[in-house]
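Key result, reporting period 2: structure in, sequence out.
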């Protein structure tokens, strides 16, 4: 186990690697559920698969996991407020948040850069997180938006993506 000082150093050093911000959503028996997830990556092109790494302490992940599928919403530059909202535990995260159902009926947040609809293929332990492999079933994107990024502990925006 890492000491607090070493954990802070680890976080500071890894903060030099910018990441996108996603919100993982599903539709549970109780309604829509979701959480902010910075730990997301593509895994495979053939077959198409992604990785999502929810924290073991997440209260939203068990509800999503129980559905057997999830949707990755890649946040756009103007959606930092959603990242903050969905990172809060215990609140009604979907209050006032417009969304439409994906082909499998999962919440796609209005204004997101992209969405990726997945079925859970595998879940593995990974320290204080879980390693979730998602088999991609459908996806879509908007060409006219830029992603929200996280770098060195703050939100960041791209100025030009070389479209």
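The corresponding designed sequence is given below.
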């Amino acid at each position: 186990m890492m000491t607090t000082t070493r954990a802070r150093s680890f976080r500071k050093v890894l903060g030099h690697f910018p990441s996108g911000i996603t919100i993982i959503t599903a539709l549970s028996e109780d309604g829509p559920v979701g959480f902010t997830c910075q730990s997301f990556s593509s895994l495979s092109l053939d077959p198409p698969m992604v990785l999502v790494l929810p924290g073991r302490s997440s209260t939203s992940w068990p509800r999503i996991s129980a559905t057997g599928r999830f949707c990755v919403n890649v946040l756009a530059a103007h959606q930092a407020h959603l990242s903050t909202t969905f990172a809060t535990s215990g609140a009604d995260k979907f209050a006032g948040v417009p969304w439409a159902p994906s082909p499998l009926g999962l919440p796609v947040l209005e204004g997101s850069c992209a969405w990726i609809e997945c079925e859970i293929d595998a879940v593995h332990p990974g320290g204080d997180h879980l390693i979730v492999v998602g088999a991609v079933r459908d996806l879509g994107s908007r060409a006219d938006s830029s992603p929200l990024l996280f770098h060195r502990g703050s939100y960041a925006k791209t100025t030009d993506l070389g479209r």
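The two ends are 44 Å apart (CA to CA). The chain has a mean pLDDT of 89. This case is discussed further under Risks and Mitigation.
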